[in-house]
Amino acid sequence: MNKNEAIKLVEPHLTKERFEHSLRVADTAVKLANKYNVSIEKTELAAVFHDYCKYRSLNEMQRIIETSSSLPKDLLLYHHELWHGPVAALKIEEEFGITDEEIKAAIYYHTTGKANMSKLELIVFVADYIEPGRSFPGLDKVREMAEHDLIKTAWMVSRNTITYLMEKKNRIYPDTFHAYNDLTRLLDGGNKFEQ
Fold it and tell me: Contact at 8 Å (CB) between 124 and 113?
């Protein structure tokens, strides 16, 4: 499947604004993939499909999580905004035959992050945060860092997300803490990827 085919499949499932966001994430992710030597084809698919299930009904996503043998049930204890990535990772295989584990993982973890992210996972995680349609304090610093250091950028995204959730007194999914801790470890000991 190529990017244009993926776009046609995704568009009917998203609002106009969310579809445009997905296209911007894809463009941003491809720029990062070029910079950090990651497959453009995998990056495009992961980025285009990252919000594929964003507007599935909460009942449907809850049922999928409850009945899936591969999704952790503790997702249901956290805000439903976390559900669409893991659900989409399942649905793209079920509905479109996309079985590539790297693509599915990048979609699964694009909201929470996790420890030991691959470069593709880092790119989709970062691109979703820095795409040009977003605007909030401190974002320019994160965008600037993306030009130089993927690990440091993902660390900034993780830190900012945790800070935001704490300020809102929201619960934070454990993978988000694991991502932050792992990225901090990498920064302390050097990057695990050659830039």
Answer: no
